[in-house]
Every structure is written in structure tokens, then in C-alpha cells.
Amino acid sequence: MVNNQKRLNAAFAALADPTRRRILARLSERAESPVTVLAKPFRISAPAISRHLRVLEKARLIERRRAGRTHLIRARPEGLKSAREWINHMAAGWEYSFDALDNLLREEQPKENQS
To answer: What is the pTM of this model?
Structure first.
């Protein structure tokens, strides 16, 4: 449970930054990308891109491999599993609460009409 919480926190922390979300979006469009190609549209330094990639890597949202001197980055969709499960669990709870509230309001409405 504690390990799952750490993964969940790491995933949400990584996703909190718009640059990292854009990096993941770019990776979703291709199987794998060299860091230089991935970094091209961003107006930030190479060290800043490296820091963003390390955060994503630590959160297990990407993986890196080397081909000679080239670092290739690939998205890890399974890295979002804990975040997806948490969101689904929360959504199910909210749906249940909204359904219960809707039922309560429907029960109360005829009573108001009788008054």
C-alpha cells in the first residue's frame, strides 16, 4: 500500500507540470524519440529538459535506453496504472454519491408538491 501511494504521488507530481504533460503527449504520438527531437519545440535549456525527463522516469511514466550516444525515450503507459485506478475509484464514489443525492431529491419532491 505504501509503495502504491509513493507511485501515485510520483505520477501526480510528474503530471502536475505542463511541460512534462507536453513531453508525454509528444511521446504518445510516436513509439520512441531521441531526447534532442523530443526537446526541440520547448524553449528551455537541455539541462531543464533532462530534469523533466528524470522526474518522468522516476515516476515510471517513461523509460530511457541508449543507442550509442543517443538517448531514446519511450512512454510507459503502465506507469499511469495507479493514477488511473485512483481516478476510477474516486469517480465511482462520486457517481454513487450523486445517484444517492438524486434519489433523495426525487423522494423529497413529491412531499413538497403535496404541501
So the answer is: 0.75
